[in-house]
Predict the structure.
Amino acid sequence: MRTMVRGIAFYRLGSGGPTVVYLPGAGLVGLDFLNLATENPATENLAAEPGTHVFYDRGGTGWSDPVPLPRSAADVARELHETVPVPGPYILVGHSMGAVYARRFAQLFPADVAAMLFLDPGHEDLFAHLPPEAAALGAELKPDPAALPDLTEAQLEAARTAYASLLAAWPDEVRAELTDHHLAHWRTGLHEAANLESEVYDEVRHGGEVPDVPVIVLTAGAGNPAWSGHGPPELVAKTLAGIRELHAGLAASFTRGEHRVLDGATHQYAHIEQPGAVRAALSDLIARSSPPAVR
């Protein structure tokens, strides 16, 4: 499945039809989203949903060549545009920070975007929109990767057990490779996201027009489970409500935008916890996509 283009790793399923490109959130890689392209990724015949599905490992992540992290959103967008092995226009599926990169791609290359699916996306106005205490909670949950100790044997074993359950539907060899990768490179997401709030959000805020294409914004209804362990229930509830409002506003900024909430789904793994709802949104976008008009 793996295709290397100038040091960038892609994984492709299916052929013909619309091309769907997956941009993972920080800490995840392309193959973490394999389940969205097929009802049962564990079958030997990985028959994809209609169209061509391309899973992307950004430079410095996954099985792509190492590059210094963090990076600008424009660097990521240009990298994808120059290396993706299938011609556009694309339906971009962006999760978390990957959704921010998808929006930057759309600003720079609007003619190459047919539709966008944002899965619990980051947003440049997040902390301006939430209670001030939410910003403090966010800072508290943001560790310094260099200061974190290596995982203990007990932590590694617990993580392997968790991944075995989380990725149970993945083919055995893919699940094993993904698990080993995540356990060896768990700091990568922290390094990549280090400039999200200080630089990347401003890039998108001042990045210019985006194509007015069909867009669906999916909100993980349960948010980030770590919040519950660090913040009072009232603040967590206000934060979740504020994120829903922000996501609804993002969807409303597009003529053909729609907002949906995935009840019970968490931020990092909503696509695994609610795969049917995410695939349904993607199928709707495939049906609605058409050549973009820039606004």
User: Anything to note?
Assistant: Residues 291-295 have pLDDT under 50 and may be disordered. The longest helix spans residues 233-252. The chain is about 40% helix and 15% strand. Strands lie at 2-5, 8-13, 19-23, 52-57, 90-95, 113-119, 215-220, 257-262.
